[in-house]
Known about the structure:
This protein is an alpha+beta fold. The protein contains five helices and seven strands. Helix 1 (5-28) packs antiparallel against helix 4. The relative contact order is 0.23. The model has no long low-confidence stretch (mean pLDDT 92).
Amino acid sequence: MENNQYYYDAYFEFIKYADEKISELEKAHRKHISCIKGCSFCCMETTVLPIEFYSILSVLKEKNDTPRFTKNSCSLLYGSACQIYPLRPLICRTHGLALAYGDDDDPRNKNIFFCELNFKHKTPKFNASNSLDMDELNIELVRLNENFLKSFGEDLPDRIPLSKLSEYL
């Protein structure tokens, strides 16, 4: 796992890039977003790509940090707060925002999804400048994952439940 630091660094650079885009959208939609610290409405047990799982695991091990695993909707929630918030995977970072996904029949035609708690009073007209293109981010994340899998040296599942972190810490 240690010899994969190059891939972990690449993953966290990607997360930094995604966070910049996310921050811009959070500022643009601040008055329409109800999510605040402690909101865990969208949080649920999820699976992540191996690059996400092992990157998060590497930092937790490096910091000798073992979250308290719970029986909540997400095993990493404690007191309605994410115990790995700075390390949370892409899916968790995008909760609540206006997310654009290409239509299966025509990927150029984007469908917008967002948390039902947000944009209650006035839904803006969404476009490329005020929504997050998840196809773009997911394509890059899958590319990072494919490169990581080639280097890992053993077969890994397509997705790994975040709750499995408890087995490795």
